[in-house]
Batch of 3 targets.
Target 1
Amino acid sequence: MRPIQMVDTKTQYHKIKSDVDKEVLDVLESSAFINGKPVQDFAANLSAYLGVKHTIPCANGTDALQIAMMALGFQPGDEVITPSFTYIATTEVIALLKLTPVFVEVDPKTFCIDPTALEKAITPKTKAIVPVHLYGHAAPMEEIMAIAKKYDLFVIEDNAQAIGCDYTFSDGTKKKTGTIGHIGATSFYPSKNLGAFGDGGAIFTNDDELAVKLKMIANHGQSKRYYHDVVGCNSRLDTIQAAILDIKLRHLDEYTIARRAAADFYDKSFAGNPKIKTPYRAPFSHHVFHQYTMILEGVDRDGLNQFLAEHKIPSMIYYPVPGHKQKMFEQFGTASQVMPVTDWLTGRVISLPMHTELDEEQLKFITNKVLEYVNK
């Protein structure tokens, strides 16, 4: 059996090695390392895939969120609502821009922001909502957009974990996550469903005026070279990464199929076990399984984590400390918030290996070892 990886980027690379190597060598030969043609080609192809008017590549997913908030003109003290149960980048940029993060609960089944909790958290200072499509499952965007419209709020989708996910509206229409809100942001970190061989990110919008602002801010705030209209930053996707991502974009749907097949194997193996809650799949979300995250009941989660490690099976706990309890947010007094769902999840979730290269032998070994520990 091949060694089990949490994310097997090496095997994935070898399947497309000839295409990747050629494109990288072409970039080296052209020496257009910054803003070369592959950057524009990738942006256009990604826009076409997602069905969105504008894709603005940038340096990483955290920058994508920061640039989105800068473009919307928020002022210090403005409130931005986001789930506490997410990776820190989502909320870090809010504080970085001297805005006020407002943490709310998530749905215990989908792990995504709870619309009821969201609406209760809105105040006159609220300017935006940042829903996170966590682990590859879509947030309830139809409800979120209705709330945003009711209170005249912006919506910035954190789509770092769900690129390629289809959201189905109540009337049957579909849109890709990241294209439903006013702005979408994503990451191309190597372990993502669409991952670069380094850092990278992108911002999406269907708003022409916002697209102009986003591009300016990502490029030192300049409308043309050496003419800087607004305060911006330097956030670029380099040409080599764009060339690699353009190749991998062609395979994204097959990558999603492979991830969903691995998730199906896990689901069937754990079906009916009262101590394991397998990931929920809401009818509106075509889950793309960035992570396969289970909820354990009556099981020593940390003990299972250690047991799997002893058998050379990697597993991860995403996320052991929720945002509202992070030390960096002490100034906002969030630690005193009562968030029973979030606290319950942080003590019970565990993620198993999930990537495009898992084979049946590996999956059988993983599931057998999980059940061995859970059922002891």
Target 2
Amino acid sequence: MPETILVTGGAGYVGSHVAVALVRAGYAPVVLDNYANSTPAVLPRLRALAGYAVPAVQADVRDAEALRTVFRDYPIAAVIHCAGLKAVGESEVRPLAYYDVNVGGAIVLAQVMGEAGVAGLVFSSSASVYGEPDALPIAEDAPLRPHSVYGRTKRVVEDFLCDLARANANWRIALLRYFNPAGADPSGLLGEAARGRPNNLVPLLGKIAAGELADLTVHGGDWPTADGTGVRDYLHVQDLAEGHVAALRYLAGARGALPINLGAGRGHSVLEIVAAFERACGRRIAKTIARRRPGDVAACYADATRAAQLLQWRTTRDLDAICADAWRWQQGGGRY
């Protein structure tokens, strides 16, 4: 029988792709989501890609009783924790909500996992825990100086999980620090469905190319980079999802808590991303150069050596694949 894996936030952008990657790798995912930032309309898409109806439970990760019911109803072997609030700007004006959901949810989940005797956890962290880097590429031992409330909640959860693993040798925890996931399932059935104006560059380009939004505002054309625009590490969401599966396999023979970067290990500038999206959609994307935003940095990209060595994982899909799949998703409406 395949191992049953609970995916919290499994109807979200990353979580839904993780669920599909688990099925393809021979696992049996169970989705838990409260649909605060997602929709149950993703479930028929998961069924189409998985070939069967993936079990789904509507519940909040902070609801201990609901979690206990899930662990009673399913033989959960490990958990991939993707549930949480993730908008950097929103976190600055809603800090209570972010600490409640992101930190409180992780504590309740760990409590119920402990009661159930389940000690394998893959945690969806973020490269935002690093803040402005002292050096590039960014390795896992770089200082953690998050600039946002969102990033600080991720750092707090990482600290908590490390303390938990030090106190109890049974825990096996991977702290996956994502860089910039983008793209969509090549089928066009799953993708990033932002509510309102997208915060992330690639889905924003999709809306502009489709005529749903006006031109792109590029924040800063005078950064100390090759073309003057900011450089970030983009990885295909399928590569990211497969990184979770690789982490799950790694944990089978590991102990303790370990941070691991998931990134391509190289950066692309804003103008490079725009050019790749123009190739994907076959049209020009209007853009204007504006002043830099406070808090932005010139460049940020991962040292992905640890993931390659320990997980035998590296990205396999390039920038053109990211943009082609994102555009296919947008052509299907870009929403559920």
Target 3
Amino acid sequence: MHKTLIIVDNENIALDEVNLEIISFEKYLKDYPKLNEPKTRIINLCDTEQYLSKGYYCSLLAEAREHIVLPSVKVINELRVFNHDEGPIINLQRYIGDLLQDTDQLEVFSYFGWVDNPILQKLGRKIFSQYPAPILKITLSKKENEFSLRIKRNAYSSLNIDQTEIFQHKLNEFVKTVWRVNNKRKPSRWDMAILVNPNEQVPPSDKEAIARFIKAASKHGIAAETITAEQFQNIGYYDALFIRETTAIDHHTYRLASRAENLGLVVIDDPVSILRCCNKVYLHDAFSYQKVPSLLTKVVNSRSKKSLDEIEQGFSYPLVLKMPEGSFSRGVFKVSNRDELKQRLTELFEESALVLAQEYLYTEFDWRIGVLNGRAIYACRYLMARNHWQIYNHSVKKNFTGGFETLPTFEVPKKVLDAAVKAAKFIGNGLYGVDLKEFDNQAYVIEVNDNPSIDHNVEDFYLGDELYMLIMSEFQRRLEQRGR
């Protein structure tokens, strides 16, 4: 039996007719997960309109804690970009009939798929099956003889009195049901699109590596070619998408990965891996919950005196502050005293509701272990940039990054390999680069990257072409698994 928690923006929001445990986001952030807690379902009623808001983090942290959550982060992000996707998702004429005969626009609310209009009941259930969220605002429009659909997630706090009463009734009904997941369509041909950005300064793979990926794909029966974001309108003609452009959530790479997956393509990086790896708050919570060895880390949501005191009680200077999102060492800052701490937190909170504080541990190199479908396939030591405490130094033009050493995985200390594989396991079954530090005979996972660097004569220095073959072999396996 699942326990159900209702999460709201703040404690002043009440649900009078709901006989369930209702807590604020702050309480969920601080008090969960709990020891020996039962299987838990989360209904997130916080406002998710703004990216990196409390509502966004509520669903993100719920997934890290292995709580079943509605809506998922994937749904939140898909609804944010819904109207940017190309091609119809639903045949509107089939569902609305002559409903817009006397008007050009109609707005209705969906509460867990229920709509207060008998004609639109099937449409409400259809939309909820694709975008399961507690409250959806559905706008139907007609211009000349063409119909359009807009879907927006609404916070509970935005409902009026009558809407609140209906919603609470439907909430009580919904918690008694089984939560279901929508099935995906299957692809039909073996062609691969490799997404690249020719203008990217530090791409995940250089041109020579891309050429070797294409060659390896052909040996596994996959015709691969590079495309850019501008060419993505034809993605439905492909069977697989391999993303070799630096990913981010509030970015076209995530939107394209989601669209490709919805069309039935085999996708690496898949959208779930992108949203989990791109946010360090999720990684920290997942590592803590799953007991993955990692550095002491604290989620910070305030720059108040009390918060600064708590940070100083838990950490010694210098310490590291991290933006939830960032790649190639961007968004990571070292602070050496309280004034620097307060100033940097002030800057970071302008962009994100949460910031990570982490203990500082200097090592001469960081490990990078490449993991594919739960198996370590390559290993590198990345040296720190000259006169800098990180691998990348974005403040200089020369000596931008340190050197490297590529090793066979059997020469990597077992504790490092085990920690890397364990960390990747809780992200998914895709292609990941796990960054670790090794100190005093211990391994500490720093983060998991969904879009790891694979450059010619760097990550492939030991395996050579076999590294590209391993990755394309996994694509082939997944395509065959889907009934090719």
